[in-house]
Amino acid sequence: MIKQVVGCALLVVLAAPAVAQVKAGADPARFDVADANKDGQVDLAEYGNFVEEWVLLNDADRDGKLSRDELKDAPNPSKFDTIDSNRDGFLVIEELSTYSDGDFAAMDANSDGKIDRAESAQRK
Ligand SMILES: [Ca+2]
Ligand SMILES: [Ca+2]
Ligand SMILES: [Ca+2]
Questions:
Q1: Are 107 and 123 in contact (CB under 8 A)?
Q2: Which residues surround ligand 2, an ion (CB under 5 A)?
Q3: Integer CA distances (angstroms), 1 to 13, 64, 92, in order
Q4: Residue 8 belongs to domain spanning
Q5: 52 sits in which H/E element
Q6: Is 90 strand, coil or helix?
Q7: Which among 84, 85, 46 has a CA at the least distance from the CA of 68?
Q8: Structurally, how many domains does the chain consist of?
Q9: What is the whole-number distance in angstroms between the Cα of residue 26 and the centre of ligand 1?
Q10: Which of 63, 82, 93, 121 is deepest in the core (most CB within 10 A)?
Q11: By C-alpha distance, which of 15, 48, 55 is closest to 34?
Q12: Rounded Cα distance, 40 and 112, in Å
């Protein structure tokens, strides 16, 4: 519990300046938003930051967790159960990071540690 609170506070501090640049309703598939340094590729750090910002954008009640209700407009609601590894009905950043690391690896077709636009487009 304490770990979650600290993690959440840290996230707010780290991500606050960037959130204003991301449009509300952005989803993790938004390549251009995720590519923070605009080099045409999204590396794992950029992807991780993007996921963290995405959590903040969708966390309407600011409790550091995403409920099913907060994600009702998400593009793939069926993924909720896949990501919610402890089945408590909430997604925390740890669960999303675990999922997004796997997601990233799955998209990185040539395993160079970066996702380019073509690899992103092939995402199912
Ligand atoms: Ca980049
Ligand atoms: Ca929440
Ligand atoms: Ca959970």
A1: yes
A2: 59, 61, 63, 65
A3: 19, 11, 12
A4: 2-123
A5: helix 44-58
A6: strand
A7: 84
A8: 1
A9: 17
A10: 93
A11: 48
A12: 14
φ, ψ at 108 (rounded to 5°): -75, 80
DSSP 120: H
Greatest CA span in the chain, whole angstroms?
A: 41
Output the pTM of the full model. 0.69
Residues in a beta bridge with 115: 42
* Dist. CA 70 → ligand 2 center (Å): 7
Rounded CA-CA distance 21/65 in Å is 22
* Nearby residues of 94 by Cβ (< 8 Å), 6 or more positions away: 7
Surrounding ion ligand 1 within 5 Å at CB are 35, 37, 39, 41
Which ligand is closest in space to the CA of residue 96? 3
